[in-house]
Structure to design on (130 residues):
C-alpha cells in the first residue's frame, strides 16, 4: 500500500551530552510533526546531528513515534531516520522500526520518503500490514 500527503514540522534545539571537536558541530533537537492526508497523525521524536567543517556535508539519525490514523486504522508506530549529505548530495532512509506498530497498526512495516518543494514538506509512505 502507498499513501502520500503533507506534513508540518517543528524542530527545537535541546541540550546535548557531548560537544564536537575538530570543526564538527554536534546537535540534538526535538521533532514535532503533524501529518495530513491518508496519514492523519502527530509525532514526537529526537534527532542527533553532526555538521562538518565542509559546507554541504553532514549526518543525522532520529527516532520518531507517530500516533494517529493510517488509511482509517488507528494506532502508533516508530520511524527510524538515517540521513547523510556529502557535498550537497543527500541520502535519507526512514523505516518503520520492526514490531513498533500498536493498536490497529500492529504488524506494520514500511518506508517513508520525504521531499521539500516550495518550502512545504511532503511524504510518500509505502507500507504493509501483516
Amino acid at each position: 500500500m502507498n499513501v502520500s500527503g503533507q506534513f508540518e514540522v517543528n524542530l527545537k534545539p535541546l541540550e546535548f551530552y557531548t560537544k564536537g571537536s575538530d570543526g564538527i558541530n554536534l546537535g540534538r533537537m526535538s521533532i514535532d510533526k503533524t501529518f495530513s492526508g491518508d496519514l492523519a497523525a502527530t509525532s514526537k521524536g529526537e534527532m542527533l546531528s553532526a555538521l562538518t567543517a565542509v559546507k554541504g556535508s553532514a549526518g543525522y539519525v532520529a527516532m520518531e513515534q507517530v500516533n494517529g490514523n493510517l488509511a482509517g486504522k488507528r494506532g502508533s508506530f516508530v520511524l527510524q531516520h538515517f540521513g547523510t549529505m556529502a557535498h550537497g548530495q543527500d541520502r535519507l532512509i526512514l523505516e518503520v522500526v520492526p514490531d513498533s506498530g500498536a493498536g490497529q497498526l500492529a504488524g506494520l512495516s514500511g518506508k517513508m520518503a520525504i521531499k521539500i518543494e516550495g518550502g512545504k514538506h511532503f511524504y510518500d509512505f509505502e507500507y504493509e500490514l501483516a
User: Anything to note?
Assistant: DSSP finds no helices and nine strands in the chain. The beta strands are 2-13, 25-37, 39-51, 58-70, 73-86, 89-96, 102-103, 108-117, 120-129. Residues 6 and 118 are 12 Å apart (CA to CA). The mean pLDDT is 95.
